[in-house]
Amino acid sequence: MDDVLIVITLLLVAASATAAVAVRDPVRQALVLSLLGLTLAALFTVLQAPDVALSQLAVGTALTPLLLTLAVRKVHRRPHTRDDGRGGETTGSTGTTGNAAAEERGE
Amino acid sequence: MSRRLRMWVLALGLAGLAGLLGAACFDLPDFGGDEHPYGDRAVRAALSHHTANVVSSVNFDLRAFDTLGEESILFGAVLGTVVLLRQTRDERHVEPAPARVSPPVRRYALYALPVTLVVGLYVVAHGQLSPGGGFQGGVVAATALHLLYIAVDYRALRRIRPVGRYEVADAAGEAAFVLLGAAAMLGGSAFLANSLLPYGEFNTLASGGTVPLLNAAIGMEVASAVVVLLARFLDQAVEIEESPKPPDNPDEPGVNAP
Amino acid sequence: MMHVLPYLVAAWVFLVGCYGLATSRNLIHAVGCLAVCQSATYVLLLAVGYRDGGTAPVFSDLEPGSRPVVDPVVQALALTDVVVGATVTALLLALVVQVAKRHGTVDPDELSELRG
């Protein structure tokens, strides 16, 4: 029984890690990374490491994806990105409302 | 190097690494084996120091010096981030507008905030007894504060989060760890040795000698480190933007370090 | 197979992360790939410390000696690494934000052209 659980969670970890690399858009990657964090937490629990699972749950599913999304928002929010015609649009839409993650979907 | 050539070099390197790693995997002790000499000794040492959670005992007692190193990396990384993400002269501060949050989200976040905060503090306080400790609880407590950003808006979060004080708390956590280690030396034993306090009764909050104290120091440092990190990134993402008059030469004086 | 599968998964995750790191066209994506590489080390560490039929090394509700426990030393290593790894990720992202500010791009290829 233990072995079955370990194999399942290991394969889930391998699959989500592959997906996290294959997804090229950083915002989507942040979401997949948080999924990877969840599967890793499950694996660590099955491997009898609750301390590490807790740590991974807090950091891997919440903190790292959040930092990545914030960095993406900052990088894309610059008033003049490059001369590819998107600059004006970006300047117009820098509505500094509260929620950072929600606004980044378009990119 | 052309892109094509680079891909070939990469493929060669990855194939070589894969071969070596694969061969190493088959030479490692079998997964699930019964031979764990260090683990067995760590368990014995932790029990003799009356610490129920052996992982905390390893972190804050048996290998506390190693944790000091980890903590210093954390401290240095936070310091570097603070320096890199400060507001520079060619940037201006934009006051964030109040945001409209839908009532269910607001209700959920406002209920979840105190619960999450208490869970985080509980996890820190019971580090020597049950799974958890300063590292995990610190992150949980710090992220709990940011539920206020989801519930209300950025200005509300900023009000309960004086970043300067959290920076001081970060340094204080690091200092407390070093001072507790030095105090053990004054007591006549080695740096960071668990000899300062009585080991207490097994499986109570006050057990484990200095383990709960070092654990609390780490909890404080990690919590304030995460708050400071997120504050710097949120400031950059929400508040700070470049001046509207972009300088024509992209080479800013003195900042274009190689 | 079971006796090497966890190690092979760790190796696979590491290699995939390396591949992503080397082929990434966006520095933020590259930092994410580095996080994947880091997670490979956690899998390897915990796999080395696992013991069949073992339980977590926490004795608050367990009579010492009544059951085998898994290796706590590797768990302590992985645990601190998880948190410290996140702060290092933050530092790298701060560097990426600086690069974007100074050069207006986060594509490593364009950056090397700028420098040349």
From TrEMBL, chain C:
Topology relative to the membrane: Multi-pass membrane protein
A single Gene Ontology CC term: plasma membrane
InterPro entries: CPA3_antiporter_subunitC, NUOK/Mnh_C1-like
Residue ranges of the TM segments: 6-22, 27-50, 73-97
Primary residence: membrane
Subcellular location: Cell membrane
Keyword tags: Cell membrane, Membrane, Transmembrane, Transmembrane helix
Domain of life: Bacteria
Family in the record: Belongs to the CPA3 antiporters (TC 2.A.63) subunit C family.
Name of the featured protein: Dehydrogenase
